[in-house]
Amino acid sequence: MTGNRKKKILIVAYPKQGSINPSLRFANRLLNLGVDVTFSTSLSVLRRFDKNTTCNGLTLAPFSDGHDDGQQPTTTMEQFISDFATNGVPAVDKIIAATAATAQPFDHLVYTTISPWAAKVADANGLESTLLWCQPAIVLGVYYYYFNGYEALISCNSNNPTFPINLPGLPSLTITDLPSFFLSSSPKEHEIGLQIMKDHIDALRISVPTVAFAQWTDQTTIAKMIVDVWKTGVKVKRREGDGVVEGNEIKRCVKIVMEDGEIRRNAEKWRELARKALNSHGGSSSVNLKAFLDGCLK
């Protein structure tokens, strides 16, 4: 980063734990590199923040998404996502505009999954944006191939749980390993999920960069990685007919994880690799983060 002024990034995070936690860790790493970071999400989330654990130096810019007490059981996923976007667009636009004429305007906007509208707000304000991908890279690969040649294959075989799906460069998968909304029995959930992910893939086509920060819908694919690729755990078996996971099955899986030496060794191996990647002196994650900053904050 050049110049005397500290570079300034606005992070817009979808108000759920799977986006909040990794985006806060990302914010902390940016702060440690000398970047001025503003974190924006729904008021309900920031009300629950522990001030003692919030990143030092982080500027908070909450807005009301219409659910200031959090998502209620009667609120559908469709309504919650829609309200976050409807209220988020003018709120984020106002946050950006408030600094535009000052000595400290935003240099870049970073947004999490389920919030593709934030990229459009950034573009309308002449601001470049980046998608912070809070799921494993394999999930991004699955979404990409679905919208680029594999939609018919997956859709036609969605009722066959053992049907093999072979995507370029990815481990062999079956239908049940795919993100859940691909196979959702709810047409509305299926439609919403696919539209959101299509928006993300379309953004990538027009060269919106992506930062993968490994951590809804991706859990089935992550389970595949845990069992067959990383080999750091086991997957529970559901009871035939109703799909219930019985207590004895959970007990069986916990016992295996706690006692299986290979699983524990693999977990330790991946933990050590993660530590090395995060090392500020040459770790791959640190190197890539600095390259991202050099590229987007020229």
From TrEMBL:
Gene Ontology terms for molecular function: quercetin 3-O-glucosyltransferase activity; quercetin 7-O-glucosyltransferase activity
Highest taxon above the source species: Eukaryota
Which protein family is named in the record?
Answer: Belongs to the UDP-glycosyltransferase family.
Name this polypeptide is given: Uncharacterized protein
Q: Which organism is it from?
A: Deinandra increscens subsp. villosa
